[in-house]
Amino acid sequence: MPSTRDIRRRIKSVKNTAQITKAMQMVASAKMRRAQQAALAGRPYANLMNEVLAAATAGAGDFQHPLTERREVRKRALILISTDKGLCGALNTNLLREAAKVPAATTVYIAAGRKGAQWVARLKRELVAEFSYKDTPQFAEARAISKFAQELFLSGQVDAVDVVFTNFINTLTQKPEARQLLPIGRLEKLEADLSGPGSAAELSPSAEAGHLFEPAAPTVLGNLLPHYVNYQLFQFLQEAKASEHSARMVAMKSATDNAKQLIKDLTLEYNKLRQANITKELLEITSAAMAMGN
């Protein structure tokens, strides 16, 4: 049975841990609000760009672009958007479980985030590039990743590029998803809710018949498609950051609550043990007094 001194030390240790997790919860909460606002603010622009490109596609006839070229997939690149740090619950575990569904023998990996790069190295899979991105993702960071992936695709080193990221649904729900980035398929309209980019109904040509383009639609497509790929990846980074900070805030809140409950349990155990020691001492004193009286 532990002594009262051991229990006091453990209570102090748990209190120190609770202070740390509480501070991390508050920091994650502040970052979470900024990341969520950034992710939500980017969705209307992505929605409008998809509408414009879908309308341009409908009016471009037999337009062909290198980024839309479809070929037999012998080699695939997977952009793995993970976190740099842990302490965010099961976020990375669920993400890497989704990434593990891709056949490793025919896949090369582009890691955005340290956790994803470590996972690829641990499983001895082929990592061709590793990128980092800030707590507030910058478009230049997304463009660098996208440019590298486009070069792999256009040079024929890979026949398709997919992205695995964590889609932000709400503060308590983050869903790992896999999306095809290249070749560009049929463009989709984003929903206005919190379901994230890509979870939407497809646009039909007739739905966007009111758009007029100057210069011609093929010219517009040729200039906008690379930017479209860049922005799609930028939006994925924002969704991943919003998911990360939300998951970390929830995990740290849970850890703080558990620490507080553990402190209560330890305090109760300490009080019981202390009371038992006091009762034992009183019994010893009473027994000694009775013995001396006899």
Structure description:
- The protein has 294 residues and is an alpha/beta fold.
- It folds into two domains: 4-23 and 251-293, ATP synthase, gamma subunit, helix hairpin domain (Helix Hairpins); 26-249, ATP synthase, F1 complex, gamma subunit (Pyruvate Kinase, Chain: A, domain 1, 3-Layer(aba) Sandwich), CATH 3.40.1380.
- 56% of the residues lie in helices and 13% in strands.
- It contains five helices and five strands; from the N terminus they run H-E-H-E-H-E-H-E-E-H.
- It has helices at 4-58, 91-99, 114-122, 139-154, 217-293; strands at 76-81, 107-112, 127-131, 160-170, 173-182.
- A five-stranded mixed β-sheet has the order 3-2-1-4-5, with helices on both faces.
- Helix 1 packs antiparallel against helix 5 (217-293) and helix 4 packs across helix 5.
- The chain is elongated, with a radius of gyration of 28 Å.
- The two termini are 35 Å apart.
Name its key features:
294 residues, alpha/beta, Helix Hairpins, Pyruvate Kinase, Chain: A, domain 1, 2 domains, 5-stranded mixed β-sheet, 5 strands
